[in-house]
Amino acid sequence: MKVLSQVQASGLCFATYRILVMVFGLCAACGAQRVSSLSQVRTLYIESFSGGSEAGRLRESLVRHLTRSRFKLVQSPRDADAIVRGDSQVWVRGYIEINPRTPSTDREAVYAGYLSLEVVDANGQPLWSWLVTPSRHAWSNIVDDLAGHAAKKLIEDSASGRGLSVSPTTPSTLVQTSLSGAGASFPVPLYMKWFEDFERIHPGLHIHYSSIGSQLGDEKLVAGKLDFAGSDVVPEVAVSKAGASDLRRFATVLGAVVPIYNIRGVTQDLRFTPETLADIYLGRVRNWDDPEIRSTNKGVKLPNDEIVVIHRSDGSGTSWVWSDFLSKVSPAWSSSVGHGTTVHWPTGMGAERNEGVASAVKGTPNSIGYVELTYAIQHQISFGAVRNRAGEYIRADYESVAEAARVSGNISNPVSTITDSNSKGAYPIAAFTWLVLPVHTIDPVKRAALDELLRWALTVGQKDCAALGYVPIPRETADRQLRLLNGTP
Questions:
Q1: Less Cβ crowding at N or C end of the chain, within 10 Å?
Q2: Average pLDDT, integer, range 203-223
């Protein structure tokens, strides 16, 4: 498996993963057992990791950390209850000067990176996944930092029973067909993995998805040009009320919109108040060394350079989430700009899709933008912590996004927006994303395929979320939606 790598799909360039499917037969003579959950796993085979130059060292470090655990590591997949797949990247974020007199030679590298892990059963069904980023600024030994935290999480979740139970793979009963979808770029890395995995389970089924933005996806679905759409906003936001009444939505995953930046010479993680983000996008804060930014980033040497503001140019659910947050925290933004899939931006330059914004920020010195978390990690771009309503500066991660969903109200019925949470540990710019289907699907074969895809995504597919930087939807939400899908109260 290669997670979070750059690929080309459907003529559209976006960052996602490349999965190498390996289906291993179970061998009773070798001692492997058939497992349905992570807690049942006793023997592990760890594949070679994909990624950058540190992939081999990361695997070796993970092996060392797991050697004294409850798991027995084996040398062949045929001897294993489950297989560990990994994808990783480690890069130099910048340098810290040790001696100002000789800055080019006396300096220490500041590293960043990630380790994405997935545990699958012998049939390739996911049992567990996780994305590890550095827990601290590791000037050295970032390899052990990433591998150590990954091993700790795997051991803890195995012992606690946290892991989805999966049913043995059964032959597909779906009739050969194709499904055409389009819409949000927010969940694209995860959706591409889901669709490819689902196609593997159901040979003869083909799913095509284009990243065109939430608004255009919903519009094309209403016009009958798609079988389904992906959207980060409820249909009523993107299309007319009449059109929205013919659509039904299912929350599929949670993600975070993060402020990304590219500032020459700055290696530290920045902290932003909500008001500062609003003022930057209003054009009121124009330079990186503005007192409003310096006040929350003491000790950071910020340049006296103009901020290049980058925003979405297409009808975007990510823009909806971003502008919804700014409207809640800034009266000036609310009264002059407001929120929507498209708004009249007071300043800055536009780029299409999350991929376009990430690429523009990475290629533009002294710029700032906003993207879904996975795109920041994929493009190796710094992203800042944001102060929430409880007064804490929170970085987007699994726990902080899950907390935003937990306190959003009726957890079994996801609301249209969960930004600006008042919970102490919640990241304030979190969001659900939805798959949107027509209420009436004329083709019964397509309807059966869509329903089965949703059932799989709301159960087995949820275990793929964490490895790609997303957060599974709450169990209560998934259960309620499954009942709706099955026509039960």
A1: C
A2: 94
